[in-house]
Write a structure and sequence with these properties.
The protein is α+β, with helices and mostly antiparallel strands and 180 residues long. The protein is built from 2 helices and 12 strands; from the N terminus they run αβαβββββββββββ. It is 23% helix and 38% strand. The strands form 2 sheets. Strands 2-3-6-12-11-8-9 form a 7-stranded mixed beta sheet. Strands 1-10-7-4-5 form a 5-stranded mixed beta sheet, covered by helices on one side. The longest helix is centred in the N-terminal third of the chain and has 27 residues, at 19-45. It is elongated, with a radius of gyration of 25 Å. Bound molecules: dinuclear copper ion. Residues 101, 126, 161, 163-165, 169, 172 line the site of dinuclear copper ion.
């Protein structure tokens, strides 16, 4: 039988299943089920998924909260654009704004302390990519995306935008400091 010619028997699908075929279908099914249940298992025990929350908000409201943190906890400014570097207290909420084509402000965290890092876009889709940790989070307008993080290694990390967001996308980079 070929797919081009008409089947010789009209009821060809009624032929009994070959044992080898049946075995492979069973193997494929079992493997599918293993992979399916590995997804929730790995989420809980794999220690590789971030603890995420998301809330609807507006750019104005978000900007206001980010500005409050900047006003309170800025320790210095960096680059020609005088971007504030905020060093918030451990356990607090930290706000990072993504907008064309900038991350604002810069953030300095302490090693081993836990923070709630908020991410939101003021315009359209950006991507938060933390290097070299390979953490990737889509940053949407209208959604305050909260990640609970505990940096484990001091150092200077790079933040790059990994969603194409326009003509200056490749310049949308920043830093995240983790200090002892
Ligand atoms: Cu922002 Cu690409």
């Amino acid at each position: 039988m070929s797919a081009i010619q008409v089947p010789t028997s009209r009821y060809w699908w009624k032929q009994p299943l070959d044992r080898v075929e049946g075995t492979w279908i069973a193997i494929a099914l079992v493997w599918c089920l293993i992979m399916f249940f590995m997804m929730p298992y790995w989420h809980v025990y794999g220690k590789q998924n971030l603890a995420n929350e998301a809330y609807r908000t507006t750019p104005d409201a978000y900007q206001k909260r980010a500005q409050e943190v900047v006003d309170k906890y800025t320790v210095r400014t960096e680059t020609d654009l005088k971007i504030p570097v905020v060093h918030p207290p451990a356990g607090s909420d930290v706000y990072l704004i993504a907008r064309l084509w900038q991350w604002w402000p810069m953030i300095e965290l302490e090693e081993g302390k836990t923070y709630r890092l908020h991410l939101m876009s003021m315009d359209w889709l950006h991507g938060f990519s933390l290097q070299p940790e390979n953490i990737n989070i889509e940053v949407h307008p209208g959604y305050d995306h909260v990640v609970t993080i505990t940096p484990t290694n001091a150092g200077t990390y790079g933040i790059v935008c990994n969603e194409y967001c326009g003509i200056m996308h490749q310049t949308m980079a920043s830093r995240l400091y983790v200090v002892k």
